[in-house]
Sequence to fold (817 residues):
Amino acid sequence: MITPVLAMHIPDGFLSIPVSVVGWLLFIAILVYALRQTRKQLGEHRIPLMGIMAAFVFAAQMLNFPVAGGTSGHLLGATLVSIFLGPWAMIVVMTCVVGVQAVLFQDGGILALGFNIVNMGVISGLVGYTVYTWLTKILPRTTVSQWVGAGIGAWLSVVVASIATALQLVVSGTSAFDVVLPAMVGVHLLIGIGEALITVATIAFVHQTRPDLLQARADNRGARWIAVGFIIALSLVFVSPWANPNPDGLERVAEDYGFIDTAQDPAYTILPDYTVPFIESDIFTTIVAGIIGVIVVSSLGLGVAYVAKRKPISSDQTPV
Amino acid sequence: MTNQTSPHIISAQHITFRYPDGRLALHDISFDIAPQEKVAIIGANGSGKSTLLLHLNGILRPQNGIIAIDGVPISDKTLQHIRAWVGLVFQNPDDQLFSAYVYDDVAFAPRYLGLSESDVKTRVIHALKMVNMEGYSNRVSHHLSVGEKKRIALATILTTNACILALDEPSAGLDPRARRDLIRLLATFTEQTLLICTHDIRLVADLCTRAIILDEGKLVADGATETIVYDQSLMEQHGLEVP
Amino acid sequence: MLHLHPTRVSLLHRLDPRVKSVTAFALILGILITPPHTWRAYPLIWTLLACVAVISQLSAWKLGLQAGIALPFTLVAMTLLFTTQGRPIMMIGGLVIPDSGLARFLEIVIKSWLAMQVTLLLTKTTDFTDLLRGLRGLGISETLVATLNVMYRYLFILKDESERLIRARASRSGKSGGYSSGGTLLWRAKITGGMVGNLFLRSYERSERIYMAMVARGYDGRMPYTPLPPLKRRDVVLGLIPIICMAMIQIVVR
Fold:
């Protein structure tokens, strides 16, 4: 089998249409910005570099090691690539990886591709990158700190991405919160350890062999803001009614609003009958709030990134 | 380690292998190799030489036929033991050197075996000495020359006291001096059985007593080196040149 | 499923890749907006896809089997069987399965399976590089398409390098009487990290060589590509036919 088994490639049919659309919009907005940034940071090197790196991530995902009981540890790679190439090139690279996996290897759906890229590329890589840069900044400047930063970053990157995936499934009404979240996150707490070990070992290898490739790259504060935005957005969805810890929370809410008679989930009734959705109902407004939260905070991040990018230029131009 | 009851260190009977994409790579290949024999496997590109080498330690498994090493047939149960007896050196040393430092690469096999660190160290030093690379243990593999990498790759399989050394294109990409040094080095391995896949017919003439020609997955000639590599019509018929 | 170089044989193979991508996207969308409890829709949609498959000289049966690839993922939807409220219809191991739960679950599985067949139809009848030209023609970023082209060119080469690394590791993973082999978990992870690092450095240095080879041929940051011929009306009409069929199915079943 050429494609690694990752429990995060959502096939079509598992995300509701509104959730898929939000995924695509988020993905496009972030990708457009990332493409512009890579043009600035990498210049004409970017096409061969990002193309090869995408092929590299694809091939590196095949390299595994036996853990225990027939399971094996392997790499998702977003954190690793963001440490090597910076967050923006990482987003383009992971877009290519996840996109090719969906189209050529049917690993993940087409309509679900937006969120698949956001989960496995944007969220995973940006969380890993943010934790890595933050930890290497606050810890003493040693090689060990670099490893600790990369390890914790890689582990969290997988865990947060799995939380995001689980929540999208819950919001789409394809899985129950109190089952899918513990299951998905539980598995990825372990998978994340494999990710962390390989990431650290790879960083150590490159540090010993070509340390010049690990030099800090251009300032990428904007990327960190997007990561923070996603964390906030995920927490918002977390406190929404979908995440009611009551075992039958989803159904009780549905019953309260009378959907249960039609045995349909709210997210599903929004589009099919082309009726006006239940905007006034609390449950839907919370979801909308969550989604808007994601967009608002992300655009905030992009805005800050833009401003941060321009500042040094203007201060250079005005001699003090 | 050596099983005295078997006269053949390698015995391949009717090996047929087809790649998953349907391409027939090896077709009904049989041969026996005696301990300490030096055998060359020659043939044009795509004739199945490398595929055959990968069968010797069970990386690839034939759809038909049996391969036995020292009388032990390769199976899931014996696989790991056989991998300690058969040392495989890949054509591109970069595929084989995946640790940052030379020492760790050479130490891979004994560490995998579960030896103590002091035993590992003894074996690594000994292996590096065998390939005349003492003093390289703290070098970064990535920055070595091709010739040096090839020697280190050879050292990585000398640490398990493997009795069979299978080398894929050992002289490819080497400059004349590095190639000469390598041939001299290989000539010192008198204790081990040597199997060399190569296009370098002069190396075959210098090192090997026996040659096997593969063509499109079939064994077309097997005999003493002198009778095979100097047979112009036979060699040219299978896309090779006399030295 | 692997390296696809379809020979241009059928009507669908020859169809403009821009039209094909848009049609495929529309069909997937159509499948996914099928309202709940409209079971009639699914055989109709399957028939539509089977017709397209037959026109493409593909076996509808094999297509259906291959589309089962995503079925393991249905595990996450399995929970709906037990957590949705409804009229109980059966018991499995003490768990009550309500009718609505079963219906929701089946709908997800069927939709996923049908959508997968559309993706397969697209990739089986379109060369990947043509698909990329189609995407470029639809206005997708030049950088992204060029990056995908480079990726596709080297994908299988690097995959082979990965495989050789794994083989080289397996070759030296021996066992000898009396020792417990395999090393510690951390050591195994370190070795794998070394393999990833090795592949990374070789890939990185390869990208630099490719860049130089590109510059040597006049590369200045822009990637020229062979543009597709202008859209033919015939292709657009052909691409619209399945979309119209899908629209009719959606109307009829409601």
Observations:
- Residues 203 and 209 of chain A are 10 Å apart (CA to CA).
- Chain A touches chain B through five residues (CB under 8 Å).
- Chain A has one domain: 17-306.
